C-alpha cells in the first residue's frame, strides 16, 4: 500500500525541522528591482546545474524545454557542472568576471559566502521571488543574507538511514535500528549472519554530523561566536564513528571516492545500511537488489545518540550572478524552475523533496512513495549555520575524518586539530 502525504501533513512535518529561522517572506523593505514584461524578455540564460548528470539532469532538461516553450524568445544554455567542483569553479569565474553562469544551482551552504563576496544579485522585488509565502521557512532562510534574498530554494533534504530490508530480516530484524547503540549491534549481526557488510560509511564531514548532533554537539555556536567542534559533545559523537570502524560494525571505509564506494556497495547488496539523502533515491532504486524489488529499499531517520536523533538540513537554491547580462531572463527562469508545478514534477520523477508546500499535494508528487518515506527523517533535520564561512568548515573536518578512518589518529587529537583550523577561518571566535 502506498502512503501519501497531504500538503498539511508535510508542512507540519517539515516545519518542525525548519521553524527556527526566518519566514521566507523576501520582504526586505528595499525597493523592488525593475523587470521587463515577461513577453518582452529575450536572450540566453546559461545555467550551471550541479545535479547528478545521469539520474537527475534529464528531468531538469525536460523542465527547461517547458520553459522555452512558454518563453520562446529565451534560450537556455544548459551546463552540468560536477557538484564537487562547482563552488570553486563559480568563485573563480565570478571573481574574474569571465565565464560565470547567469544562474547557478547553489548548495544552501554556499549562498551566504557568495553573497558576502558580492557575486550574487539580490532577488527581492523580482519575478524570481514568486509566491514566497509558499516556501518552507528554513529552505527560504538559506537564501537570505544581510537582510536580502539571494537564493530561491529548489529542493530540501537531509540524511536518513537507508537499509536493505531483506538483509536485516536475515539477521533477525524486522525494523531498522533506532539508536546508535542498536546500529552497531544490527551491523555486527548482519556481518556474522549474512556475510554482507553491516554498514558502509561515507568519509565526508557532512556525513559525520548525525553522530555529532546525536550527542548534542555541532560545528559552532553562532550566537556566542564559539567553536564547538572539539567540545565533549562533539568528541562523544565522533567516538561512535571510531568505534564502528574499529569494531568491524562498519566495513573498512574507502578514503578516496568514499561516497561512490558506499553507494555502490549498498545498491549491489554488499552492505545492509548507509547514511544518505533523498537525492540518492533514483540511483539506489536502479541498483541490483532494488531494481526489481523496490519494496526492499527502506528509509528511516538516522539513529539517535544519547541526546537526540539529528541530521543536517541541506538542499539547493537557485541564485543569479550579479554580473549577468541577462537579469530579466534569469529572473523568469528561476521563477519557472522553482514553481510548485516544476517542483512537483521533480518530486514525482526523482523523489527529491520540494520547498513549496503546495507541491506536496500535487498528483505527481503524491504518486512517488519516496516523498512520504522521507517525512520522518525530515523531522530530525537540524538547521545549519547560514554564515559566509560555513562551506569552509567542511574541508578541515573531512581531512581529519580521513585520517581517523585510516587509523592515523584518534578522535580527540583529530578534533583538536580541526578546532585550530577553524580559528584560522572564524576570526575572533573563541574555543
TrEMBL record:
Q: Which keywords, in A-to-Z order, does the entry hold?
A: Signal, Transport
**UniProt key word Transport:** yes
* N-terminal signal peptide: 1-22
Q: Which PROSITE patterns match?
A: PROKAR_LIPOPROTEIN
Write down the Pfam families for this protein, in alphabetical order: SBP_bac_1
**S-adenosyl-L-methionine as a keyword?**
no
Q: Which family does it belong to?
A: Belongs to the bacterial solute-binding protein 1 family.
- Name of the protein this chain belongs to: Extracellular solute-binding protein
Q: Record the organism.
A: Microbispora hainanensis
Amino acid at each position: 500500500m502506498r502512503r501519501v502525504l497531504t500538503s498539511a501533513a508535510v508542512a507540519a512535518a517539515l516545519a518542525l525541522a525548519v521553524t527556527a529561522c526566518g519566514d521566507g517572506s523576501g520582504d526586505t523593505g528595499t525597493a523592488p528591482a525593475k523587470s521587463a514584461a515577461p513577453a518582452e524578455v529575450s536572450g540566453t540564460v546559461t545555467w550551471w546545474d550541479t545535479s547528478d548528470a545521469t539520474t537527475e539532469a534529464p528531468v531538469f532538461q525536460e523542465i527547461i524545454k517547458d520553459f522555452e516553450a512558454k518563453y520562446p524568445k529565451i534560450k537556455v544554455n544548459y551546463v552540468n557542472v560536477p557538484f564537487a567542483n562547482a563552488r570553486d569553479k563559480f568563485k573563480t569565474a565570478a571573481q574574474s568576471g569571465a565565464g560565470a553562469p547567469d544562474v547557478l544551482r547553489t548548495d544552501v551552504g554556499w549562498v551566504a559566502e557568495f553573497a558576502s563576496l558580492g557575486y550574487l544579485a539580490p532577488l527581492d522585488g523580482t519575478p524570481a521571488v514568486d509566491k514566497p509565502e509558499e516556501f518552507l521557512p528554513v529552505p527560504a532562510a538559506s537564501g537570505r543574507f544581510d537582510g536580502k534574498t539571494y537564493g530561491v530554494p529548489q529542493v530540501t533534504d537531509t540524511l536518513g538511514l537507508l537499509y536493505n530490508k531483506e538483509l536485516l530480516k536475515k539477521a533477525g530484524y524486522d525494523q531498522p535500528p533506532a539508536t546508535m547503540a542498536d546500529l552497531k549491534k544490527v551491523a555486527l549481526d548482519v556481518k556474522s549472519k549474512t556475510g554482507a557488510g553491516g554498514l558502509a560509511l561515507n568519509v565526508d564531514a557532512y556525513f559525520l554530523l548525525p553522530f555529532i548532533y546525536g550527542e548534542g554537539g555541532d560545528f559552532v555556536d553562532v550566537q556566542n561566536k564559539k567553536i564547538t567542534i572539539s567540545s565533549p559533545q562533539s568528541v562523544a559523537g565522533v567516538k561512535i564513528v571510531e568505534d564502528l570502524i574499529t569494531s568491524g560494525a562498519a566495513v573498512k571505509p574507502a578514503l578516496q571516492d568514499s561516497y561512490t564506494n558506499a553507494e555502490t556497495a549498498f545498491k549491489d547488496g554488499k552492505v545492509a545500511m548507509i547514511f544518505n539523502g533523498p537525492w540518492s533515491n533514483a540511483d539506489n532504486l536502479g541498483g541490483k537488489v532494488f531494481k526489481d524489488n523496490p519494496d526492499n529499499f527502506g528509509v528511516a531517520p538516522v539513529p539517535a545518540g544519547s541526546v537526540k536523533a539529528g541530521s543536517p538540513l541541506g538542499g539547493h537554491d537557485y541564485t543569479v550572478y550579479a554580473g549577468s547580462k541577462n537579469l530579466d531572463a534569469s529572473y523568469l527562469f528561476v521563477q519557472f524552475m522553482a514553481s510548485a508545478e516544476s517542483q512537483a514534477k521533480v518530486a514525482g520523477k526523482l523523489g527529491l523533496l520540494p520547498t513549496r508546500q503546495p507541491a506536496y499535494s500535487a498528483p505527481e508528487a503524491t504518486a512517488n512513495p519516496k516523498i512520504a518515506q522521507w517525512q520522518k527523517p525530515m523531522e530530525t533535520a537540524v538547521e545549519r549555520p547560514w554564515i559566509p564561512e560555513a562551506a569552509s568548515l567542511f574541508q578541515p573536518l573531512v581531512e581529519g575524518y580521513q585520517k581517523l578512518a585510516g587509523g592515523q589518529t584518534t578522535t580527540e587529537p583529530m578534533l583538536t586539530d580541526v578546532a585550530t583550523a577553524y580559528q584560522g577561518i572564524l576570526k575572533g571566535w573563541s574555543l
